[in-house]
């Protein structure tokens, strides 16, 4: 996040991404001779769902519809069982999807001229669908707007490059770089290690530029062939859209070079996990001033309450920050991943870090989310924690100045425990809405049961002949 967090523009590149309305969309598509449009919707896991249609049909046809069940689908394509708190739509009727023309951009990896356009989900009556992740984030942003506040965020997304892996029974391995050798050691911030994948990185930048997506910086992270992309700060909805599109872009660029890009939280047991750190500040909508800093540059009560809200409520939304069984493998003591909700100044061993900055750039970095988290839901959950802290006037504990990597506090250590906490907290249910909470809980419980049906290599290794 730069030194001036009052800027909340989306930083779209001129003419490459986003138009005002349907009339401008017609012109934009016609100028580029776009033949097809990918009408896409991020689901609960952050996977792009939708339809491909010819441009002519997009403008002449009826509103796009899809079954309501797309927001009740697990990562494996299954659906949770009905219970006393969650029930499927018995007829699986259609939802209606409206395009957000601010998101219109090209699909530069397609051979034919193709555009992509993110849509929002509505009921037949025109109400926002409560379980659609983009609507969940809008719901939380509405709470801020009602207070005259505007959040500003800057995500940092880590990912691994790996050799193609077509048999899931085999562990992932680092890919071979231009030297002809895979990485074996850890190469934090190494320029030479980054240069091993120059051609791929050039493609990432090129494909991103053609979509109007702006990368602030790219670095080599601690793990073998682990990278991190930092995005410029801005409006949370716009940044969630960018993370959603960046994930698609990076995967496509990697495939061009016979590699996979994975955003799994812990893809390799002997390597660090991948995070999505979220820098957050809040500005006054009228003045543009950062409400975390006073007139003389001092910390405000709002800033301390924002921190305290994260300390109190992060355990209840961990199942959003760490959405899969694999996610909890990242939370390991004595690692770069946080195992606590302590806070401190420029301390990377706590879950909540306050970077040193100018007063106008004062912010909180939430280091808990994994890179596998749905960006819309992760941003919504983090901002919800801060909001609750501010409206309740909560106070944080003392900042930690030492190494807290071994100090566990409050964060659940498994998906089932995390989901139970998510469902039980009344404040969380109120800000997210009961329907979303119960649907999300049912999906995650079904995913856990699917995971438990698979026998792991560890079990065959240590139990087969020993018990």
From TrEMBL:
Cofactor(s) this protein requires: Mg(2+)
Keywords: Ligase, Magnesium
InterPro entries in alphabetical order: Gln_synt_N_sf, Gln_synth/guanido_kin_cat_dom, Gln_synth_cat_dom, Gln_synth_gly_rich_site
Region of interest called Disordered, as start-end residue ranges on this chain: 165-185
PROSITE patterns, alphabetized: GLNA_ATP (PS00181), GS_CATALYTIC (PS51987)
Residue ranges of every copy of the GS catalytic domain listed in the record: 133-467
One Pfam family hit: Gln-synt_C
Family matches, as PANTHER family: GAMMA-GLUTAMYLPUTRESCINE SYNTHETASE, GS CATALYTIC DOMAIN-CONTAINING PROTEIN
Family: Belongs to the glutamine synthetase family.
Record's protein name: Glutamine synthetase
Source organism of this protein record: Roseibium litorale
